[in-house]
Amino acid sequence: MSKTRGESTRDTGLKDKPRRWSKEEWRDAVAEAPPFSVALGQKLRTVREGKGWTTEDIATSAQGYGLGWHRTTVGQIELGKRALSAIELLMLPFLYGKPLVKLLPGEVAHLTDTTAASIDYLVPFAITGEVWDQPGSGHLHRPGRFHFKGQEERVGRFVQALRDQPNPWPPEAVAAHTGIPDEAETKAAKRLDTTPHYVAYAARMTWGHGLTAERDTRLNQRPDTPADRRALQAARGHVTRELINELDPVIRRLEEQRTPTPSKED
What we know:
single chain, mainly alpha, 11 helices, disordered C terminus
């Protein structure tokens, strides 16, 4: 089974902002929402059939990645009768040829018996910590966010604790350019006297992916890439320094918009 190649690395599938819900729409959506496993299974089946693949194709691909899946396993997952482990969930893009956010169900689903969520809101929150609302404008259990049966007080304390933490991303950051900083970006932040999140954001805004990915891409494009381990390490360091120099002016522009974190003495 061949995977479809060529999907843009810039397209993460994250939306700029989830839809707005009225209280009545949200109440009805929560009441009718299927369990997450059922909604996920239906979405995976739709993607599989859209590519013209069989359950046997998916199972064979999964076995190639070390998963003990069979045709019946895929069928049980698509029916929502078999939950996925965290590792299996993260490996879905290898099996279906799409980013994970495009394999998740689109609307509202029950995560547990007492918790439901709008998946369009849950995904950016889970990946980037972005809650979309400015401080003071509402809570996570507003219509269209999360439904926590009988847990409003506990959720309120959680949201307040979240808001007390400074936003690590640049002002007006878009979700498509956010990503967990990698080791190279963390090291580069020290040299650039900034934060790993600003380096990670600048890299994705400039190249469409992280610093490590861009470094490896440029190394592979060189006709004289050394085979010796020490020479390769030296070449990697040289390319990294070039990339850091490219990011420097981008980060300076981002830093100019940055709101200083108030000191405890203020």
